[in-house]
Amino acid sequence: MILEANTQDGEPLVSDKPNFSQQDAEEINRTANSESKIKSTIENLNISADAKSALYEITNATVRAGRLIIKVGRKILDIVLETLKNFPNASFGLVLGGIMGILVASVPFIGAILAPFLTPLAMIYGFAVGMKRDVEDKNLANAIAAANADFAHLKE
Question: What would the pLDDT profile of 78-100 be if each residue is shown by its tens digit?
């Protein structure tokens, strides 16, 4: 199948992917969040209007596969939103590690030397600690749900 897209400059990108099928395109277009939910989430973010506009532009990124339009940008934002929803502590840890890296980079002289090494390490550490907490929380939630299911027949 021939895949076609345009760059921001309007230049066409064309690629022949013989193993790409209509089912693959339909799978990419399936998202957990509707387009209105994604746009509502962007609107409720506490960021500048320019950043919101950039996110809206991402949702409009598409690729043409034969007669189908693949909403690649919407799928990317859907994955990001699902990750944030399912792993909030890991996401927060990753962002916190990035902020620590920026702070280290802002230290005169030494920051420029240490930041390239410490920023990824801080982000990995924050992600790992957050993921550990997310896994622990999910296990607790699963245990509560299982316990609730054991007593479900008493509710009736």
Answer: 888 887 787 888 888 888 998 99
C-alpha span between 84 and 38 (Å, rounded): 13
Task: Among 44, 65, 84, identify where a domain stops.
Answer: 84
Is 114 in the same domain as 75? no
Q: Are residues 80 and 92 in the same domain?
A: no
Among all chains, which residue has been given the structure tokens 């043409």? 64
Contact status, residue 125 vs residue 95, Cβ threshold 8 Å? no
Q: Rounded CA gap, 86 and 129, in Å? A: 15
Structure tokens at 57: 């532009």
Range of the domain at 101: 87-155
Task: Please tell me whether residues 73 and 97 are part of one structural domain.
Answer: no
The b/e string for 121-153 (b: 16+ C-beta within 10 A; e otherwise) is: ebbebbbebbbebbeeeeeeeeeeeeeeeeeee
Burial of residue 76, with CB atoms counted within 10 A of its CB: 0-12 exposed, 13-18 middle, 19 or more buried? middle
Which residues of the chain fall short of a pLDDT of 70? 139-140, 143-144, 147, 150-156
- Could you give the count of Cα atoms lying within 13 Å of 138 in the half-sphere of its Cβ? 12
